[in-house]
Amino acid sequence: MRPDLIALLPELVLAALAMGVLLAGLASGRARHGLLAGGALVSLAVTALALWYAAAATDPAARLFSGMFALDRFAVYFKALFLLSSALVILLSVDYLKRNDYRPGEYLALVMFATVGMMTMASGVNLAAIYVGLELMALSTYILAGYFRREVKSHEAATKYFVLGAFSSGVLLYGLSLIYGTTGTLDLGALTRVLAAGKPATATMVGMALLACGFLFKVAAVPFHVWTPDVYEGAPTPITAFMSVGPKAAGFAMFLRVFLVGLAPLAASWIWLVGAAAVLTMIWGNVAALTQDNVKRMLAYSSIAHAGYALVGLVAGGAAGVNSVLFYMLVYTVTNLGAFGFVIMLESRGYAGETVSDYAGLARRHPTAAFGMLLFMLSLGGIPPTAGFMGKLYLFAAAVNAGYVWLVVVAVVMSAVSLYYYLRIVLQMYLREGEGVEPAELVVAPWTERVIWACGLAVLVIGILPAPFLAAARATAGVLGLS
Amino acid sequence: MGFATNLLNIICYVPLLGALVIVFLVRKEQTAAIKTVATVVAGLDFVLSLPLWFVYDPAGPAFQFSYVHDWIPAVGATYHVGVDGISVLLILLTTLLGFIAVYSSFTAINHRQKEYYVFLLLLQTGMLGVFISLDFVLFYVFWEAMLVPMYFLIGIWGGPRKLYAAIKFFLYTLFGSVLMLVGILTLYFYNSSGLQAIGLPGLGHAPTFDVTELFKIATQIPPHVQFWVFLAFFVGFAIKVPMFPFHTWLPDAHVEAPTAGSVILAGVLLKMGTYGFIRFSLPLLPDATRKAVPWVVALAIIGIVYGALVAMAQKDMKKLVAYSSVSHLGFVMLGMFALNPQGLTGSVLQMINHGLSTGGLFLLVGIVYERRHTRMISEYGGLAKVMPVYAMLFMVITMASIGLPTLNGFIGEFTILVGAFNRSTTWAVIAATSLVLGAGYMLWLYQRVFFGEITHDENKTLKDVNLREQWTLIPLIVLCFWIGIYPKPFFRILEPSIRRVVEVVDPGYMNHPELHLPAAAPAAHAQEE
Q1: pLDDT for res A368
Q2: Distance, in angstroms, between B253 CA and closest chain A CA?
Q3: What are the CA-CA distances from residue B249 to residues B18, B150, B176, B260 (Å)?
Q4: Given this model, what pLDDT does residue B217 score?
């Protein structure tokens, strides 16, 4: 096989298997949830094997498909993370789809297509390739957000997401065209050389700003976050979980690669732009979350806030900054998927209707599940000994090292603020007895429960012994030509 | 020697193991078994910590019982634990109060008992971890992780305003500690690669969070860096102490917490703030410390006077004791920032004293609260007639708190005043005068509760303290007398560790031998009394 194809093998395998799942789903209709989900999981596992093979057989420095595509360790790390998060999301979805009686075939296939898109984004070293991956991911996610077609909120979510997402893609594309028009290239390596050679034209700067706006939209950063709460609230909960980890991590993968490689010579100009967005995102995300009663909306704002923390790592730049963002994405993935798993277990009260007070007294009736949620909330708030603390420690350390102490001060103060709303859930679970209102019951969802267990364990292990996971993130150092 | 190198780990994790045993092996209906396991574990932990007292060699190396293990090599964080004289005393205080907290809760806690003892034991692991850590990341992990069990102790088993008090406690202390984290990171990078964008080059050492390594660069850190790091540490520690004006979380947390929670809060948690100053701020940031002296001392003296005056106005016994803590901790801070051996020794000794006497006072208030379910001073009166033993115990602890000679408070306060006097007569005069206020509110409390006629009929039938309650207090009283009559062993164990701190923070002082009062002098004085 040609090296190009070997490097692309994981994407090819996954796309082919996704079509297989799609066809099998057409044949089985609303039945055979377990079988189809099992097929999807096996497909992801096969893709992981293909990724392992492709990574071993491909020169990390090679630029394939005429300089469009790279399979460096940065890409491999993100692809492994996407496969992990998609697998967990599928596990979270099995019982959920069955309970709500929706067809599993298209749903699973769309999750897999979105994964193909994300994997392409992580590998793209040309703005056009990245954009193609982005659109594949985004289109699949639009449909998934509206997949529960009997729910009005799901429609609303899909429509808002699609209109705003398409608009932001347009902005992004306009930025791309300006950059291409003024520099004559979309290749990130070539772009660096052109931009480093001389003073950039005004149109290039405008293009860069538009690109930043588009990216900030994709990672749900303030001021481009307004879609997030509505979409997160309305989308089926496993898809909300998916959007908060997979596409967000993919957004950061392209953000890091494009801004720290392609647009690196313009760093002096974009750093204040991204830094300001980081500050606004952390402040607004956390402050707005304080008053949310709906749990999904609260987690939506929390996810906005976490994008802000990750942007701090981008501003810090350098190998340390990249590593810390990579590590943080892993930490955030296991924590947030666990937290959403718990939200799914509680969805016994109609669609997306859970308020914080529905959690009252849960610790007494479901001590293990409540303990898991306690871990996730502490991890999101960055309290040791959970993974969230270690993630934040590396992020903030990178930023302090780069000299952005003021940014870190904002970040740590806001993460102290965030504990207020994370502890609201803990308070309801442990401190209230559940008097007055009829307490919500947990649904029977064995796979969701297992995901919560696995994520809870991961949160503790990463929090206490982070060394091996950090080493995996650090192994990507230098790939982007940073030191 | 396996036992000596692992002793600190054993002391620290025995409560954690006990908590796990209760979680997994005991059902929540078996309350007697839960209590037994918790008591045995807490008692065992105290016994295990006793070798520290006997084996720790004041003349030996700075940190003993050290245990080092790789933890996160990528950033230079190691699992490094060890103790000096200061932490030995605080560990012993923690394990003793931890046992008393468990033992005193048998009848006070009637619901969700399993969780209660689990959280109490987890809290103990967290506190011990803080006192043994010699690595900043490790220290910070314990420092913050400990907030969670305390949050639950206040929030589940607390008084009427428990939810408010719990979240206030958590957020206040968290806010301080996250800023401290920024300070830690700044120090860490100054030692290694520097802070690039603000043009601060580092010293280029291998990156490390190990405190004993960072001690070596203390004198090389430029003043402006010291200033900012000191400020960051100050916010974290001063909130914990708590110093005026950061004390507002304390009355709420103390009053709402269950008795054992108050004992731990006052006895150990507040010491973590003062311990932070003496372990990190003073020896790591000597220049900034010297410059901060007038400001910190001003806040400490305001705290002493303010705490005493507010305590005098309280109608609630627990709140009175809580505000008296603000005043006492002001004394601790005053002694510490005298920056001389007497002041620092007195300061550490007063940390222990405050743990014993205030812990005892909270236990005593808890005893009548369990009987009457009120802490209002006006609800009592004439108790000396119906509860003579209780009145006697209360009297001893009150005297210890006031600082009557032959009791521990006197030794601590006297040594602190000697240190303060060496630095400035004015400080000593103001602080000594305010001791009268302390005697005022405590004696007035005693008079209103124990003397006079019995004004409430319910009080006529109150049962005196039972044997278990007596035994929660007797160890404290024995220690109060021991420190009050023969404090020499305590001074001996502290002296070298204190000297090391003073050598860094005020090298000039150590060069004047004529100023050097031997640390045992106040002890001799006390014996004459």
Answers
A1: 83
A2: 15
A3: 30, 13, 12, 18
A4: 87
**Among A383, A400, A405, whose Cβ lies nearest the Cβ of B148?**
A383
Q: What is the rounded CA–CA span in Å between residue B513 and residue B509?
A: 8
Q: State the smallest CA–CA distance between residue B294 and chain A in angstroms.
A: 27
Domain locations along chain B: 290-508
Mean pLDDT, range A404-416, rounded to an integer: 92
Q: What is d(CA A437, CA A353) in angstroms, rounded to the nearest whole number?
A: 15
Report yes or no on whether pTM surpasses 0.90. yes
Nearest CA in chain B to A471: B74
How many angstroms separate the most distant Cα atoms in chain A? Answer: 70
For residue B286, whether the previous peptide bond is cis, meaning omega lies within 30 degrees of 0, is no
Percentage of chain A beyond pLDDT 70 is 95
Contacts of A419 (CB under 8 A, 6+ apart): A381, A383, B170, B171, B174
| Cα–Cα distance list, B327 to A446, B412, B483 (Å) | 55, 14, 21
What is the C-alpha end-to-end distance of chain A, expressed in Å? 34
Q: Give the separation between CA A49 and CA A276, rounded to whole angstroms.
A: 41
What single string gives the DSSP state of each residue in A417-440?
HHHHHHHHHHIIIII----SSPPP
Helix ranges (DSSP H) in B194-241: 211-215, 223-240
Percentage of chain A beyond pLDDT 90 is: 61
Beta bridge partners of B195: B200
Give me A232's structure tokens: 């997160």
Angle, in degrees to the nearest 10, between helices A405-426 and A267-290: 20
- The pLDDT confidence band at residue A438, using thresholds 50, 70 and 90, is low
The span from the CA of B360 to the CA of B97, in Å, is: 10
Which of B152, B162, B195 has its CB closest to that of A403? B195
Which chain A residues have a beta carbon less than 8 Å from that of B178? 412-413, 415-416
* Average pLDDT over all residues of chain B: 89
For residue B82, the Cα-to-chain-centroid distance in whole angstroms is 18
d(CA B43, CA B32): 16
The residue written with tokens 């204040």 in the block is: A272
**Which strand (E) or helix (H) includes residue A95?**
helix A73-100
pLDDT value of position B527: 43
Q: Do B167 and A427 touch (CB under 8 A)?
A: yes
* pLDDT level of residue B522 (50, 70, 90 thresholds): very low
User: With an 8 Å Cβ cutoff, are A470 and B178 in contact?
Assistant: no
Rounded CA separation A104/A353 (Å): 23
What's the half-sphere exposure (Cβ side, CA atoms, 13 Å) at B406? Answer: 4
Q: How far apart are CA B56 and CA B54, in angstroms?
A: 6
**Parallel, antiparallel or unpaired: strands B77-83 and B64-72:** antiparallel
CA distance B14 to B125: 8
B84: left (phi over 0), alpha (psi -120 to 50) or beta: beta
Is the pLDDT higher at B337 or at A473?
A: B337
Is the four-CA dihedral A61, A62, A68, A71 of positive or negative sign?
A: negative
B/e letters for A223-234, b = 16+ CB within 10 Å, e = fewer, are ebbebbbbbbbb
Residue of A nearest to B154 (CA): A431
Query: How far is residue B389's CA from residue A465's CA, in Å, rounded to a whole number?
Result: 52
What mean pLDDT do residues B463-477 have?
Answer: 90
Question: Per DSSP, what are the bridge partners of residue B200?
Answer: B195
**pLDDT tens, residue by residue, B200-222:** 787 888 888 999 889 888 888 88
| Alpha carbons A13 and A29: distance in angstroms, whole number | 24
Helix residue ranges per DSSP H, A101-201: 104-123, 127-145, 152-183, 188-197
- B309 and chain A: CB distance < 8 Å anywhere? no
Is A419 in contact with B174 (Cβ distance < 8 A)? yes
